[in-house]
Amino acid sequence: MTHQEFLDYRRDVHAPLLLSIPETKQYVRKFIVSAPVPAPGYPAPVYDAMVEAWFDSVEDMHTFFQSDNFVNRVDPDHENFLDLSAVVRLVTEETVVV
Hints:
Elements: H1 3-20, H2 22-27, E1 28-34, E2 50-55, H3 58-65, H4 68-74
Antiparallel strand pairs: 1-2
């Protein structure tokens, strides 16, 4: 899959699927997808996208990712456009510096 095919699939197939489950509206507070862009003087990107999913609590995050709709409808679609062996998941807490 080319990078453009990845972006198209994520936007045209996966995002609507994610938005179709009620748990997204119920638990997800912010969902950001950032795609790398070439920048002179910086190394070429080694990833296709970075995703941030924001929740009110760790409990809400667990509830969302363990919901039947996510487990049975959304999560299986990841293998259609992601190299799951290269996916890194981080759970973090934001500290605003500036």
